[in-house]
């Protein structure tokens, strides 16, 4: 029987009932402006305060006190948080003569393009190369740190291949050397236990819509004592750190969502991991010439990413869509670019193989039945596309492909 | 994103396969770019009596291959030479701008197969078919 299987939770997630219910009053009933002094406005301010507490608690940040500078600031999305962290720190530290940034070559575009923008301004950037699983070592970071290094930014978990980076160890190296440390944790929050203090994190970006909150809300954790110039100028919102009238319902939604996602991370991760491993093992059993991208063990609990030699990813997505399955691919055709994903190239995949990648990202709403449905539908799709592929012919004949 | 016609030719591609004793075979593109098209022609008395294709590529690459083979099947060689990528795009009710290169590749694949046909006859194909770009024209690899 045909099903609808949403297996693209790394792209975005369904807003949960719990989150919708928490948000609803703040649209038409409790719609006051949090900056207004009357009680109707102050109720919105209190709702923001509660959400800030929820985010801080989920990250191990300091509990925010009313009218004191907090460590958690709300933004419009993960991309804004990344832009603010990188550009803010680099601009602030440039005044102290520190103009060097260290990051990796397989970050999200929000980081990579911010780093490139900084390079255009004259900052110097080191892009650490990841290994075949998408890992970098704390030693690589240590070796790259210079006198003028202001910031190290390494993503917590890769959005495409799910690799979990050794963040606490990298953070320790940075703090040992007196360098600030930022992590883009958009994919990690709720999937792995995060404690900004114990893990030596100075700045952390997160996004609501990966956690069953709506699109259009994010946050940036900024450790107390780290002062960034604002990215968005205007009113005095967010303690004069981020202007713009607070998006109260969405902030409330993020607070509710992050609390739910971090309530019992081991149990949530174990459930996702069981589905993930069944999917990985099932694909490896059923489809020849399938390559699991990323690490088998250091991996997000819901991430599955394969390359199927001889075929191109978009064709797979279109066929999966015909079967009711939503997934994504790192092929050029789906990136809106003509090159395949920079992440897959960074882990050393040849172009031809990178074009044939498929990401299935499982979430809280998925079930084992969904996994079995994917395992039933995917192999014949791969087979069908291979049957018409001249590249597959060459692979079978043992001829070079590229 | 895609027209119904594109989806039809993607999900039910016409003329997929190979012709073992083809009179002309042409292949364009490369795996780096993510598109390879190979066309097989059977030509009898100057008429294309059969045509098959094999394609590695996205939905549009498969649909344009399918449509291009449909457009030249049963046509005279001289008519097939007149096939343009715009004709393939129009027959598919349009393509997203980023996929236009797939139709260019389909036109080139047909021309490459026709060039091979002329070469086998001992005729220099270049004055008739023109130059077939080596690889594809849309990327830097």
Q: What topology emerges from the helices and strands here?
A:
The complex is a heterodimer of chains A (402) and B (141).
Chain A: E1 5-6, H1 17-23, H2 25-28, H3 39-59, E2 72-75, H4 78-94, E3 100-104, H5 109-120, E4 124-128, H6 138-144, E5 149-153, H7 167-176, E6 180-184, E7 203-207, E8 218-222, H8 237-240, H9 248-262, H10 265-286, E9 290-292, E10 303-308, H11 313-322, E11 325-326, H12 332-335, H13 342-346, H14 351-354, E12 357-361, H15 368-387, H16 390-397
Parallel strand pairs in A: 1-11, 3-4, 3-5, 5-6, 6-7
Antiparallel strand pairs in A: 2-8, 7-8, 9-10, 10-12
Chain B: H1 4-11, E1 24-30, E2 35-44, E3 47-56, H2 59-72, H3 77-81, H4 85-91, H5 100-120, H6 126-129
Antiparallel strand pairs in B: 1-2, 2-3
Helix pairs in contact in B: 1-2, 2-5, 4-5
Describe the structure.
The complex is a heterodimer of chains A (about 400) and B (about 140). Chain A is globular and about 70 Å long. Chain A is built from 16 helices and twelve strands. In chain A, helix 10 packs parallel to helix 15. In chain A, the strands form three sheets. Chain A has a seven-stranded mixed beta sheet with strand order 2-8-7-6-5-3-4, sandwiched between helices. In chain A, about 40% of the residues lie in helices and about 15% in strands. With about 400 residues, chain A is an alpha/beta fold. In chain A, helix 5 links the parallel strand 3 and strand 4. The longest helix of chain A is centred in the last third of the chain and has 22 residues. The radius of gyration of chain B is 14 Å and the shape is globular. Chain B has about 140 residues and is α+β, with helices and mostly antiparallel strands. Chain B is about 40% helix and about 20% strand. In chain B, helix 2 crosses helix 5. At the A-B interface, helix 11 and helix 16 of A face helix 1, strand 2, strand 3 and helix 2 of B.
